[in-house]
């Protein structure tokens, strides 16, 4: 313990020095610099029946760029964070970061090119770790690159071609099987009936390789094909709607006879009436086998059921926000999730699942914030959550969180 304090002080000193150096840059439009601090108390940090509590301190330094130059737009963001834990510091203290960039440019009279990429490193949430290893240092590294080319910027009909690549890595050996290399490609036709309403029809292909998920001596590969319909509708000046419905077919390298066909999708509605209130509602049906979120499968490995790529999630999220003044705001949110573990029988797939194949998670959240000035803001929140158990690593737990934060921004 005697050695950790000096190291922490050195890191904070470097963070402060970097903030000082960047202050001058932040005054030059379009740069902004934010230094923030949050403290969170979680009554069940371990997310299990032991209900180990924890207090987490998170210090962030973030620099943002948003610049338009003619028909080109440049955006970039970099955040570096220091996380400190009161009770589990020896296992979990460390750094985290997010870096992202995007570039958009018009080409000729009717083309548009968009490039984007991001990289992040963070601790895997405890509830997503194995049941016997809830509080361990499981670092997740996430990398993504994407490019899209659109023809039809000004007209009613547009064609969009997109390509993507991503890589996901876990540091915990027990979750190496989740490491994933993924590539994707898609094309979409978009038709705008007016400035307020457009429809889209798209097809996509995604290849997900799991190099450390070895079945029958070979690494697993999931090949996905999807057809989707989308719509965006500005109903009124106060109400907007967007939605997508996808029909997906998945095939698996480990078992040619194993297939998955299913519907997924999401619907978003936002309502901002006259006055100081805002409302939002989202309905979604997703799966968690890959970033395109459209597959389901059950594996049996060493007698343990792996549910990393087999759960269908149905969720409802609603929120409201009241702003009585330009500086003061209050919000409330509720989330409900239903997890369905699918039964499948084919080759290496589990022929039977004993125990509950459905579980639920619910959370209620209240928050408030105060914008003291353009540069300085404060906020606090309280949250109650509860998870029921199923045959997957989701085990029963419940608890509550309290959090407060402060941020200083120079732009």
Mean pLDDT: 85
Helix content: under 10%
Which overall shape is indicated by the principal axes computed on the Cα atoms? globular
Q: What Rg do the Cα atoms give?
A: 23 Å
How many beta-strand elements?
Answer: 20
**Count of discrete alpha- or pi-helical segments spanning 4 or more residues:** 2
In the predicted model, the low-confidence regions spanning at least 5 consecutive residues are 1-10, 24-28, 289-308, 344-351
Derived structural class: mainly beta
Let me know the largest β-sheet.
18 strands, antiparallel, barrel
The ordered string of helix (H) and strand (E) elements is HEEEHEEEEEEEEEEEEEEEEE
**CA(first)-CA(last) distance:** 39 Å
Our estimate of the beta-strand percent is over 45%
Secondary structure layout:
Blueprint: H1 4-26, E1 31-42, E2 54-69, E3 72-85, H2 89-92, E4 94-107, E5 111-123, E6 139-151, E7 157-170, E8 180-194, E9 197-215, E10 218-233, E11 239-252, E12 255-271, E13 277-287, E14 299-301, E15 304-306, E16 311-322, E17 328-341, E18 358-371, E19 376-387, E20 397-410
Antiparallel strand pairs: 1-2, 1-20, 2-3, 3-4, 4-5, 5-6, 6-7, 7-8, 8-9, 9-10, 10-11, 11-12, 12-13, 13-16, 14-15, 16-17, 17-18, 18-19, 19-20
């Amino acid at each position: 313990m005697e050695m950790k304090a000096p190291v922490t002080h050195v890191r904070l000193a470097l963070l402060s020095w970097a903030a000082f150096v960047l202050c001058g840059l932040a005054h030059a439009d379009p740069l902004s610099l934010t230094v923030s601090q949050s403290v969170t108390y979680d009554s069940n940090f371990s997310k299990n029946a032991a209900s180990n509590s924890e207090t987490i301190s998170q210090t962030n330094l973030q620099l943002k760029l948003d610049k338009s130059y003619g028909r080109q737009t440049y955006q970039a963001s970099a955040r570096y964070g220091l996380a400190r834990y009161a009770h589990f510091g020896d296992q979990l203290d460390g750094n985290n970061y997010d870096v992202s960039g995007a570039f958009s440019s018009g080409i000729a009279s009717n083309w548009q090119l968009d490039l984007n990429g991001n990289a992040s490193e963070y601790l895997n949430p405890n509830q997503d770790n194995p049941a016997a290893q809830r509080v361990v240092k499981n670092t997740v590294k996430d990398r993504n690159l994407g490019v899209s080319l659109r023809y039809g910027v000004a007209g009613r009909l547009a064609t969009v071609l997109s390509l993507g690549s991503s890589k996901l890595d876990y540091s915990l050996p027990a979750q190496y099987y989740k490491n994933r290399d993924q590539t994707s490609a898609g094309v979409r036709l978009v038709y705008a009936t007016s400035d307020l309403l457009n429809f889209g029809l798209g097809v996509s292909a995604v290849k997900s390789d799991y190099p450390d998920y070895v079945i029958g001596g070979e690494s697993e590969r999931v090949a996905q094909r999807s057809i989707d319909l989308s719509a965006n509708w500005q109903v009124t000046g106060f109400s907007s709607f967007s939605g997508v419905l996808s029909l997906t077919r998945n095939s698996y390298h480990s078992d040619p006879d194993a297939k998955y066909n299913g519907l997924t999708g999401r619907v978003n509605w936002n309502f901002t009436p006259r006055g100081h209130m805002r409302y939002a509602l989202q309905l979604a049906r997703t799966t968690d086998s890959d970033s395109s979120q459209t597959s389901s499968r059950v594996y049996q490995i060493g007698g343990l059921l792996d549910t990393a790529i087999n759960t269908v999630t149905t969720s409802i999220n609603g929120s409201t926000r009241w702003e009585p003044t330009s500086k003061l705001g209050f919000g409330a949110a509720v989330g409900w999730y239903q997890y369905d573990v699918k039964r499948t029988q084919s080759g290496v797939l589990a022929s039977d699942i004993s125990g509950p194949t459905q579980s639920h998670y619910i959370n209620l959240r209240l928050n408030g914030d105060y914008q003291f000035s353009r540069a300085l803001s404060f906020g606090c929140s309280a949250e109650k959550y509860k998870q029921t158990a199923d045959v997957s690593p989701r085990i029963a737990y419940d608890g509550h969180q309290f959090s407060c934060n402060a941020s200083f921004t120079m732009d």
